Amino acid sequence: MKTKIRSELAKLWQIAWPVLIGQLATVGMSVADVAMTGHLSADDLAAVALGASLWSIILVTVMGVMIAINAVVAHEVGAGAFDKIPHIMRQSMWMAFGVGLIACALLNFSTIVFNYLQLESHVQQKATEFVRIISIGMPAFAMYRALYSYTTSLNETKPVMVIAILGLAFNVIVNYLFIYGKFGLPQLGSTGCALATGFAMWLMLGAMLWWIHRAPVYRQTFPFTHREAPKWSEIRAMLKIGLPIGVTYFAEVSAFCAVGLLVARFGVVAISANQIALNFSSLIFMVPMSLGIALTTRVSQTLGEGDVVRARFVSWTGVGISLVFAVISASAMTLLRYQVAAAYTSDPAVQQVAADLLLLAAIFQLSDAAQVTFSCALRGYKVTRVPMFIHIMAFYGFALPIGCALGLAPEWMPWHPSQPMEANGFWIGLVLGLTVAAVLLGIFLHRLSSTRIAYHLSQERKSIS
């Protein structure tokens, strides 16, 4: 058993570590945006925090929809049906282009929410401008994630790592030039930050297309040999898998971002501290997230081979290693929370509030790591609707209502603290919501995998008899 676990962990890690570096580099763009504007002014940091709340919701939703391509292509890889992959990818690029355009339009429309947050006029103007400019990168991001899923399904994750690092380097350099107005350029602050990130998305798409065109490993499944009209029936089949994942991502990220928007009423210090805690915890989350992406690939490939018993083994091995990391990250976050806050901002008031929130973020590391790897294993089974409903219930039935009760302490609620707990109350709600999601997803994965094995064994008995 130990040999099997070590062997599976090696396969998972082979896929996961370049994905992890790529994910860290991608999130590093957001870290750079927050840190670099944070050292310019509190107003620019608040504008980026508010704009990033909307940007993150749409961005991660698009990412979730595109994950369907990973499950579909990886199944064909496991089955050895490589001839089907080029056609799947041509259709997925049409899907990605359409999803990207819709996401761009939704992102621009969503700025209307700033009108209801009682923001200072100049902060609202900066945040709106940030969102509208950064939306130029959305179509490129959707197509990039389609190709990301394609190359990951082939176990080729090196380009994901290299291109994300390239995008991060570009983002930091252009941030430096435009945020601070270096070498005679205008000082654009949060607007310059949006320009850098938006253009970085297009750079990453171009780099991924170039890599796939040049690398020999893609020749057998190269999708761009000829043009092909979109086929709605096939795009709809991928959306049937991808949309529930997108809604799942939306439920989780929108809950976190809704907290950011609700915290805005408590002032610039609360906004900035909340963004620091969210930004850093998102950075740590990339490890279980990367393991989850690798897990989706491994489970899909194993099921494509027809081995349902090993698929369950792969699933729980992935969950186990993710929980081990969560224990380590929670301990480190607890011990170093003040140092982390100081790295983001030099404002003592923001540092203190951020450190308090990072302690709560440390508490939910186990639940967060468990729920993401459970979800990713289920995607390998091409089961996405039940996890979607679980996430909606966990975040909108538990996390946000409890967070509002504790954070806002409205008098009309049957129970509330005597004084609003502000940002701390909202984060306590998030801890509880993530725990509910993790428990229910774990139960569902156990039942689903057991049912698949029982069905497979019954079919074997019928064939023998």
Automatic annotation (TrEMBL):
Positions in coiled-coil regions: none
Keywords: Antiport, Cell membrane, Ion transport, Membrane, Transmembrane, Transmembrane helix, Transport
GO terms (BP aspect): monoatomic ion transport
Keyword Disulfide bond: no
Membrane topology: Multi-pass membrane protein
Localization in the cell: Cell inner membrane
GO cellular-component term (any): plasma membrane
Any one Pfam family match given in the protein's UniProt record, by short name: MatE
TM region positions: 12-32, 52-73, 94-118, 160-181, 187-212, 241-264, 276-295, 316-338, 390-413, 425-445
GO molecular function, one term: antiporter activity
Protein name per UniProt: Multidrug-efflux transporter
The organism of origin for this protein: Undibacterium fentianense
